[in-house]
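Structure Section — protein described below
Tokens — whole-number codes for backbone shape
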Amino acid sequence: PAWQLLGTIDWRSGLPYSVVDEDLEFVGQRNVLRFPTYFRVDAGFERRLAFAGFHSWVGVRVSNALNSFLPSDVQANLNSPAFGSFYNSVWREYRIAMRFEK
């Protein structure tokens, strides 16, 4: 094939986390609260080219194509003014892909 389409879809309910106090002791039941639902789409396409006896694939890939909010951290300290805030989301990222075959 001269063209190749790539893609993944990752959808899951949020990961659980526990609330802690200022001494980092657990407050209430563990793992009751959850991160937001996670929905991520990665996509790309590649074109096969021949050059100097090599067969290469050149293309573009996009991670987090929909620019979804995908936090990896939560402020779980009950005494923090930012308690319950989610942050460190994954950014949308574009990449140029090159693969060489003989």
